[in-house]
Amino acid sequence: MKGIVLAGGSGTRLSPLTIAVSKQLLPVYDKPMIYYPISVLMLAGIREILIITTPEDSHLFKRLLGDGSVLGCSFSYEVQEQPNGLAEAFIIGESFIGKDKVALVLGDNIFYGNGLSKLLQSKVTVDGGAIFAYPVRDPERFGVVAFDKDMNVTSIEEKPESPQSNYAVPGIYFYDNDVVAIAKEIKPSHRGELEITAINQEYLLRKKLTVGVMSRGMSWFDTGTVDALDDATEFIRVLQRNQSTMIACLEEIAYKMNWISYEALKASASRYGKGAYAQYINTL
């Protein structure tokens, strides 16, 4: 399976923070935001990753992340000229995807929790589509999924007035190769965008959409607003301070996945100067 990080969009809800820089390059405590979705794909065992950015920010992402080789990964880049919807990622990434399965994670979503890697890895062999479910108090604000005891989806709705469950759909999706053809066939919504919900509904019609439930021990943040960004920053800060561990340290994940050697892990610390990130790598 290959992976895509969609790091486009204008980030207007975070303005003026995003006037001069992509929101996915903003800090979430001690790391750029994009480190977190990349870490999610890496935890799923995905090493070939396409990063889709805005045209004006592409060079900044390349400067930050390079080609991924220092992580035992392969990073490539494409641009989304206009924010035409999440589903456009599969059209932009068609040649990158090739004949493989693909996972999409949104560049402003942060996931953390015990058992997350195992849950993600359970979906990389998906036959059809796989989405995730996260319990929330206000499901009417989100895409909402309902499912049966066999984890087959029975309904999926976008911001329903009367939700059929309290499970929101967070910004990570796993699909087989049919997703490219499906994305090409869907029509723009009333917002003028190619909606990811339309793709999920097509898999639902085919009875090939399953769901993985994120348990109470897992956390999800959509950092698209200032308050949500602040909440995520505080969460990461407190957790790292109390547990003496680092969330989304890409080099640590690569080492634990046996993608890089111990020597390469230690050598990577020099890239980060004398900061806390480099100090953490040196303690591993």
Order of helices and strands: EEEHEHEHHEEHEEEEEHHEEHHHH
The overall pLDDT average reads: 94
Oligomer: single chain
Q: How many strands, what sense, and barrel or not for the largest sheet?
A: 8 strands, mixed
Please count the beta strands (DSSP E, at least 2 residues each).
14
Instruction: State the separation between the terminal residues, measured CA to CA.
Output: 29 Å
Cofactor: Mg(2+)
EC number: 2.7.7.24
Enzyme class: transferase
Protein name: Glucose-1-phosphate thymidylyltransferase
Task: Compile the SSE list and pairings.
Elements: E1 2-7, E2 27-28, E3 31-32, H1 35-43, E4 48-53, H2 58-65, E5 74-79, H3 88-92, H4 94-97, E6 102-106, E7 109-113, H5 116-121, E8 129-135, E9 143-147, E10 153-158, E11 167-168, E12 172-175, H6 178-185, H7 196-205, E13 209-213, E14 218-222, H8 226-243, H9 250-256, H10 262-268, H11 276-283
Parallel strand pairs: 1-4, 1-6, 4-5, 8-13
Antiparallel strand pairs: 2-3, 6-12, 7-14, 8-11, 8-12, 9-10
Describe the overall structure:
This protein is α/β, with parallel strands linked by helices. The protein is built from 11 helices and 14 strands. It has helices at 35-43, 58-65, 88-92, 94-97, 116-121, 178-185, 196-205, 226-243, 250-256, 262-268, 276-283; strands at 2-7, 27-28, 31-32, 48-53, 74-79, 102-106, 109-113, 129-135, 143-147, 153-158, 167-168, 172-175, 209-213, 218-222. Strands 1, 4, 5, 6, 8, 11, 12 and 13 form an 8-stranded mixed sheet that branches. The chain has a two-stranded antiparallel sheet with strand order 2-3.
